[in-house]
Amino acid sequence: METHEEAELCFPELLNTSCLKPVVSQTEALVYHILLFTFSPLTVVLNLMVIISVAHFRQLHTPTNLLLLSLAVSDLLVGLVLMPVEILRKITCWFLVDSMCSLYLFLAWFSVSTSVGDMVLISVDRYVAICDPLHYTNKVTVKRVKVCICLCWFCSGCYCFVILNDNLTHPGKHRTCQGECVSHMYFFSGIIDLVATFILPVSAIFALYMSVFVVAVSQARAMRSHITSITAQRSGKAVANKSELKAARSLGVLVVVFLICFCPFYIVSLTGNSFIPLLAFCMTFVMYLNSCVNPLIYSLFYPWFRKAVRLIFTLQILQSDSCDYTMV
């Protein structure tokens, strides 16, 4: 393995201010390249499938699917920009201008905050669907969900601009040498971010899904105990409730995987171990990996997604009436 003495400068013409090029072994370089050329393209392709599916087929224009569409857009951003840049930062210098570094940091925080916001909205959607099913169609409409999604993205953008204001208004202020891209956050800002993007959202998601779980269990017991004496009208309602319960379970898996991927990053940050470069990279990449896993969850639990992917790859969506196909 190379030593720091053997490492080259990022900018040889800047002898006194240039950073050293990252020193990685051949094994480490191989691992980074595998991550770069496997997970990044896979994340982009899978999330494009979700975006095209929900956007193209009219039957999929439901409130819940619009929330999945919003999540897929933020996940696409992760696969398209954040994953490759995070990996390249480990194996090479930052050769772009400081303003591009600030833009990358903003996109990284923006993607995470919108994903968290989408997960909270998904949890609220399932809470209303299970706990107040009679009023779900009136309370959760496509128009209201679109407004909530727009507010989520707008508020996330404003929040990230405030948190990263110093990095955005003074690009390169906190770097120690030419060739690195680093973010700086004051202690108070870090506490605010921890509460706003981790503690409060996770607490809300946990509380909402615990309520969903309790109601789902009671509904399942009620359906089992009255299945033989139920009327035709109530039978239809039972089928509807069963469908909502199935959707709740599917989206529950999505939320659990989200927490598994995001919690390690914030736990490491909370314990102060984020200054260990390799550990920080691993936790960040695991968090980004959630963007690749989400579409895989859809493929396991949603028949409409599998059908949509088949129609996309067979180019049947190019037919004039394809947007009206029956998907569910």
From TrEMBL:
Residues 46-298 form the G-protein coupled receptors family 1 profile domain. Gene3D superfamilies: Rhodopsin 7-helix transmembrane proteins. It holds the Pfam family 7tm_1. Coiled coil: none annotated. It is a multi-pass membrane protein. It is found in: Cell membrane. It comes from the Eukaryota. GO terms for cellular component: plasma membrane. SUPFAM superfamilies: Family A G protein-coupled receptor-like (SSF81321). The chain crosses the membrane at residues 30-54, 66-83, 103-124, 145-164, 184-217, 251-269, 275-301. Its main location: membrane. Keywords: Cell membrane, G-protein coupled receptor, Membrane, Receptor, Transducer, Transmembrane, Transmembrane helix. One of its GO terms (molecular function) is trace-amine receptor activity. Belongs to the G-protein coupled receptor 1 family. This is Trace amine-associated receptor 13c-like. It comes from Sphaeramia orbicularis.
